[in-house]
Amino acid sequence: MNINIFKIEEELDLAAANAVVNVINGNSNATLGLATGETPIGLYQKLVQAYENEQVSFKRVTTYNIDEYAGLGKAHPQSFYAFMKTHLFSKVNLSEGQFHIPNGVAVDLAGEAKRYEALLKVAGQLDVQILSIGLNGHIGFNEPGHTLRTETHVVNLTEETRQVNSKAFPSLTDVPKQAITMGLGTMMKAKKIVFIAKGEAKAAILKQAFNGPIDPLVPGSLLQLHPNLEVYLDTKAAKYLMELS
Ligand code: GLP
Fold first, then answer.
1. Is the CB of residue 80 below 6 angstroms from any atom belonging to ligand 1?
2. For residues 182 and 7, what is the distance between their CA atoms, to the nearest angstrom?
3. Which CATH architecture has domain 2-244?
4. Rounded mean pLDDT of 153-160?
5. What's the rounded Cα separation, in Å, for the pair 142 and 121?
6. What contacts 98, CB < 8 A, 6 or more positions away?
7. What's the pLDDT at 101?
8. How far is the C-alpha of 88 from the C-alpha of 41, rounded, in Å?
9. Model confidence pLDDT, tens digit, residues 171-216
10. 30 FRET partner, CA 20 to 30 A, in 12, 51, 56, 174?
């Protein structure tokens, strides 16, 4: 694990984006695993800037998002599809067919999870996987539990996650109760993981994830097993990890 700690958020975003840009510039057919949430927004802004400055092209890149809410279609403002369109897809040369997100409004959600997993199998090992962590240690929507699923699956969201994520919705009742998420096994197959976390609220869970035992009750702790994990943290999130860097 390679931990990079930044005082300035923009420098963190730039360093994490540069790690992704370097992968694409080393392989124009690169495959990327993408995450949503507030944390990677700055990274996506830096990717857009790099594209605008002709430092990177997404022309032959393919992307796979790690999750989507059940019941939210592409046009729903809180869908992860809409998030990705807003922050990245509409701003760089990535068009329909190049990016993939589980279909949250599939009639058969379990079937959709299988279809998505099959797509990932064809894609093979992703070149880089961007990840962050939820306050309860979840990765994508792999919630804490005594067993962790390795492949894409339908998940019941914990009440804690629904509460935390309700900040993006008009009210708690609008937050879906289920989602489709890539399993940790698939994410862990990526050649490189670019992990980002920001803010003091994440400090305690990061200590458990990166400085504690590997425990399915802290899904993020599984990332310790990845051979090429790059961690980008601000000083607040890194509060309890400084001694590891
Ligand atoms: C969501 C996503 C996760 C993300 C987490 C943290 O639940 N499924 O992929 O890591 O939220 O989001 P934020 O970056 O807003 O704290």
1. no
2. 32
3. 3-Layer(aba) Sandwich (3.40)
4. 96
5. 19
6. 58, 61, 62, 63
7. 98
8. 9
9. 999 999 999 999 999 999 999 999 999 999 999 999 999 999 999 9
10. 12
Could you read off the pLDDT of 21-56 as tens digits, one per residue?
A: 999 999 999 999 999 999 999 999 999 999 999 999
d(CA 62, CA 23): 13
Q: Tell me the CA–centroid distance for residue 67 and ligand 1, in Å.
A: 10
pTM above 0.85, yes or no: yes
Residues with catalytic function: 67, 136, 138, 143
Report which DSSP code applies to 52.
Answer: H
Structure tokens at 86: 């807003």
| Nearest-angstrom CA–CA distance, 11 and 133 | 20
Which tokens in the block code for residue 29? 């057919």
Whether 230 contacts 18, CB under 8 Å: no
Of ligand 1's atoms, which has the minimum distance to the CA of residue 181? 8
Looking at residue 244, its pLDDT comes to 52
DSSP 86: I
140 Cα: distance to centroid of ligand 1 (angstroms): 7
Burial (CB count <10 Å: 0-12, 13-18, 19+), residue 33: buried
Average pLDDT over residues 147-157: 94
Q: Residue 183 CA to chain centroid, in angstroms?
A: 12
* Residue 156 host element (H or E): strand 153-156
